[in-house]
Amino acid sequence: MPNLTKPNHGNMSVSDCKSSSYGTKTDARDVVSLVDDLLKKAVESDASDVHFEPTGSELVVKFRLDGALNTVEKLPKSLSGNVIARLKVLGGLLTYRNDIPQEGRIEVSKTQNDRVMDQRLAVFPTIHGQRAVVRLFYKNRELMELGQLGFSNDIYTALKKIAAKNQGVLLLTGPAGSGKSTTLAALLRHILKGFSGKSIVTLEDPVEIRIEGITQTQITPHGQMTFPTALRSLLRQDPQILMIGEIRDAETAKIAIEAGLTGHLLMSTMHSGTPAGALLRLLEMGIEPYQVTSSVSAVLNQRLIRKLCKKCRRKIDKTGLFEAVGCDDCFNTGFKGRVLIAEMVQLDGHLRKAILAKSDLDQLEAILKSKGHTNMLEDGKRLVSEGITTQDELNKVCGIISDDPSASGEML
Ligand SMILES: [Zn+2]
Q1: How far away, in angstroms, is 311 Cα from ligand 1 center?
Q2: What distance in angstroms lies between residue 340's CA and the mean position of ligand 1's atoms?
Q3: How far is it, in rounded angstroms, from Cα 323 to Cα 325?
């Protein structure tokens, strides 16, 4: 057996990953324990996802650790079909259908300990056979205080001010996996603690972080409980603080903005690369400029950035900054844990005027620049200078291409 059940990450690093010792004679029972071992190991490593990727010659198993994919096992191609079939059995999928994408849920086994809340399986046909991804959801994983998330003092103070308001809209932007749910949960917990007696309700798809003391409802994407229908009913439940998982459509946007204008503090997320982009997106969804300017308090754009492993990081003499090295403790990646970088745009008179004048993205960006807005790259520099992360990591997270080949990785 390879080192799957070993508690530390010892031999499962990117650099020294070898092909598996699993032979071609592996029987069905071995495949069962192989899959169990991999899922167990994923939880021990704090992986958020496990990828099973068929290639022409192998089945490559990767763990997503702190946002980056790491190859942990290369299984012989002959096992590929059986491993995927086993996953499909666990996920309650149709094992005889290999030609369609399928999604299911894997029962959490006792061996995975009680940290896992949910496991979701998705399989997808490829030219080399089926590919599978298991997404792991952990209990209480991100129960962090607002002040512990890594925001700069300015943003932390601004967020606390917004959380104390009785109306308005706070929008969070950033791609999937940028910690938006964690920030929202921390904000809700902050309100719950500091302003007891306020009625707090959420609509989420799915509920990722459970918080004792607030009403959380899960949206069913294909059912009758959609964001707009649920939101409309929820407004009749006398809520004061509303959190909507995501504003995806014009109808939700319209109700959300109206809620923010009528005595509710509403928080939600939107897909947009920049804060100014999120404001314009609302206009594209048919929200009137005056509604945007009178409801939206601020837009927070955030990303998660990997922290250097404290055990192995190395000081570069020339610059006094630190670089990644890699040790057993950090899966040989040189990084361990993540922290937020962010930029926040609060609507002031200048920006409101520009939105009412239907300014485009370039014009809004120019206004922000003239006001000395701190963007994410600039925000991240404090983490680089403190040795918490590296410049390469910051460039990568901010989408700046580095010409240093050692900085490339499999970040999504
Ligand atoms: Zn390390």
Answers
A1: 5
A2: 20
A3: 7
pTM of the full structure: 0.77
* Cα(329) to centroid(ligand 1), Å: 5
Q: How many A from CA of 34 to the centre of ligand 1? A: 27
Instruction: Output the six-digit token pair for 196.
Output: 């007891």
Question: Dihedral (C-alpha) 78, 123, 118, 303: value to the nearest 10 degrees?
Answer: 110
User: How far is the centre of ligand 1, averaged over its atoms, from the C-alpha of 134 (Å)?
Assistant: 26
Which structure tokens are listed for 33?
């324990």
Which residue ranges form the domains of the chain, and what is each CATH number? 3-138 (3.30.450.90), 146-407 (3.40.50.300)
- Phi, psi angle pair for 356, to nearest 5°: -65, -30
CA of 390 from ligand 1 middle (Å) equals 14
Residues surrounding ion ligand 1 at CB below 5 Å:
309, 311-312, 327, 329-330
3-state SS, 143-154, equals: CCCHHHCCCCHH
- Report how far ligand 1's centroid is from the alpha carbon of 1 (Å): 25
CA 143 to chain centre: 14
The length of the chain, given as a count of residues: 412
For residue 160, what are its two tokens? Answer: 């606390």
Q: What is the mean pLDDT of each run of 10 residues along the chain (412 residues)?
A: 37 43 60 93 90 96 91 94 96 94 85 76 96 87 78 96 96 92 94 92 86 88 82 90 94 95 95 93 96 97 95 94 92 90 96 96 96 94 95 91 46 36
